[in-house]
Design goal:
421 residues, globular, iron-sulfur, 4-hydroxy-3-methylbut-2-en-1-yl diphosphate synthase (flavodoxin), 4-hydroxy-3-methylbut-2-en-1-yl diphosphate synthase activity (ferredoxin), isoprene biosynthesis
C-alpha cells in the first residue's frame, strides 16, 4: 500500500501540566488540540464558562488573553473556579507588550498558568526588548513553566526584518521581499529560542510558532522552521477567516503540513459565525485530525451528498440527527467504553451505494430512494441486523431506532466492563 504521510518530524517532548493532568506535546505524543477564549479575561464568570465549554468539547489547552493587571488577577480566580468545577484543563497566558510586568507584578498569575505565550515582536525594541524577554523567561524558570515563542507575520520585529532585507539587497541573487519576510519570521523564532536557552530555559520547555494568514506562506514558513530545528511546533493560521473560507484555509494549510509530519499542536483560528458557539474551532480541529487518521475523538458519519434518486429531506434529517447524537453521546460513552472513537457510521440515501457503504462502516443505514421499497436496512460489520420502516418524510421513527442500534453496537463492542471479564 502506498504511504501518503511522511513520518513525524522529530521534536522535543514538552510537558504542560496542571495538577495530575500532563498534556505532553512533541513528536512522540498525540497532536494536541488548542483553543482560545474570546471573553474579557477580567470577566471571571464568562471566562470560566467558556473555558469549561471549550474543555468539554475537547480542547486540551485553553489560551487566555492576559493584557491588564485586572486580567492577570482574574486568572487566579478563574483557575480556582475551574478547580471547584473539577476541570484540570491547563491554561495558557497570551502576553503582548506588557507581559514582563504582569508576570513579575502578579506572581499568582504566573503560577496559576500552565504555559506562557510570548510574541518576540511585541516585547520591545533593542536592549529594552531583550531585557523584557529575559524577564519573562526568568519567570518561566522560576515557576517551571514551558513557553511558546510565537512569531506573527503582522507583528514581526522590524529590526530583524530590516537587517535581513539589507542582507538580501546585498546578495548576488536577491529574493522577493515577501519571501525575505518569511525567512525573517523563522529567524526571529529561532533567535528567540536560542536566547531563551542561553538564559537557562531547556529546549524541551520551548514550543515555536510562526503564524501568518496566507495558506502558501504558512506552509513555506513551517517547512523552513521544521528543517532548521527540533523544537515542538504549534500550527495555525493567524486569522483563518469566517465560515467555509476559514475551515478550508485551515484544512488546506495544516493538512498539508501534518501530512508532511510537521506539527505537534494545532489551533483553528476561525471567526465564529454570528451566534455560533466558540467550540466550532475545537470541532474543526478534531475533525481535521480524525479525517486524516491522526487521532480519534468521536465516531464519524459518512453520508452521501444526495441526488435525484434520494428523498433528500429524509436522509439529510437522519444524517444531521445521527451526527448530533454521536456528539451528545461521546462523553457518556467515554466513561463506559474504550475505542469507540474510531467507529464509522454510514447514513446513505439510496440503493446505488447505500448497502455497500453501510456494509463497509461499523454500522450503517441505507435509506430508500425515490421509487424504492420503503424499508431501510441496517448493517453492522457487513451483516444485516435490522430493517426499519418509516412513515413518508418523517425521519423521527427511523432516527430513534437507528440511535438505539448505534448505542447497542457501542456497548456490545467497546464496553470496558466486557473487556475486564
Amino acid at each position: 500500500m502506498m504511504t501518503v504521510f511522511q513520518p513525524r518530524h522529530q521534536t522535543h517532548t514538552v510537558h504542560v501540566r496542571y495538577g495530575e493532568n500532563d498534556v505532553t506535546i512533541g513528536s512522540q505524543c498525540p497532536i494536541r488540540v488548542q483553543s482560545m477564549t474570546n471573553t474579557a479575561t477580567a470577566d471571571v464568570q464568562a471566562t470560566v464558562s467558556q473555558v469549561m465549554t471549550l474543555a468539554e468539547a475537547g480542547s486540551e489547552l485553553v489560551r487566555l488573553t492576559v493584557n491588564t493587571p485586572q486580567a492577570a488577577r482574574a486568572v487566579v480566580q478563574i483557575r480556582e473556579k475551574l478547580d471547584q468545577l473539577g476541570s484540570d484543563v491547563p491554561l495558557v497566558g497570551d502576553f503582548h507588550y506588557n507581559g514582563h510586568k504582569l508576570l513579575t507584578e502578579v506572581g499568582e498569575c504566573a503560577q496559576a498558568l500552565s504555559k506562557y505565550r510570548i510574541n518576540p515582536g511585541n516585547v520591545g525594541r533593542g536592549e529594552r526588548g531583550m531585557e523584557n524577554f529575559a524577564r519573562m523567561i526568568e519567570v518561566a524558570l522560576q515557576y517551571d513553566k514551558p513557553v511558546r515563542i510565537g512569531v506573527n507575520g503582522g507583528s514581526l520585529d522590524p529590526q530583524i526584518l530590516a537587517r535581513m532585507l539589507e542582507e538580501n539587497r546585498a546578495s548576488a541573487d536577491p529574493e522577493p521581499p515577501s519571501t525575505v519576510q518569511l525567512h525573517a519570521m523563522v529567524a526571529s523564532a529561532l533567535e528567540s529560542a536560542a536566547a531563551a536557552e542561553k538564559i537557562g530555559l531547556p529546549a524541551d520547555r520551548i514550543i515555536l510558532s510562526a503564524k501568518v494568514s496566507a495558506v502558501q506562506d504558512l506552509v513555506a514558513v513551517y517547512r523552513e522552521l521544521a528543517s532548521a530545528s527540533h523544537y515542538a511546533l504549534h500550527l495555525g493560521l493567524t486569522e483563518a477567516g469566517i465560515g467555509t473560507k476559514g475551515v478550508v484555509a485551515s484544512a488546506a494549510s495544516m493538512g498539508l503540513l501534518l501530512a508532511e509530519g510537521i506539527g505537534d499542536t494545532i489551533r483553528v483560528s476561525i471567526t465564529p459565525m454570528p451566534g455560533a458557539a466558540r467550540t466550532e474551532e475545537v470541532r474543526v480541529a478534531q475533525e481535521l485530525l480524525q479525517t486524516m487518521g491522526l487521532r480519534a475523538f468521536s465516531p464519524l458519519v459518512v453520508s452521501c451528498p444526495g441526488c435525484g434518486r434520494t428523498t433528500s429531506a429524509l436522509f439529510q434529517q437522519l444524517a444531521a440527527q445521527t451526527q448530533r447524537y454521536l456528539v451528545e453521546m461521546t462523553p457518556r460513552w467515554r466513561a463506559d467504553c474504550e475505542g469507540f472513537e474510531n467507529m464509522l457510521v454510514a447514513v446513505m440515501g439510496c440503493v446505488v451505494n447505500g448497502p455497500g457503504e453501510s456494509k463497509h462502516a461499523n454500522i450503517g443505514i441505507s435509506l430508500p430512494g425515490n421509487g424504492e421499497s420503503p424499508v431501510a436496512p441496517v448493517f453492522a460489520d457487513g451483516e444485516k441486523i435490522a430493517s426499519i420502516k418509516g412513515e413518508g418524510e418523517n425521519a423521527d421513527l427511523i432516527a430513534e431506532r437507528f440511535k438505539e442500534l448505534i448505542n447497542e453496537y457501542v456497548y456490545s463492542h467497546y464496553s470496558k466492563k466486557d473487556k475486564n471479564l
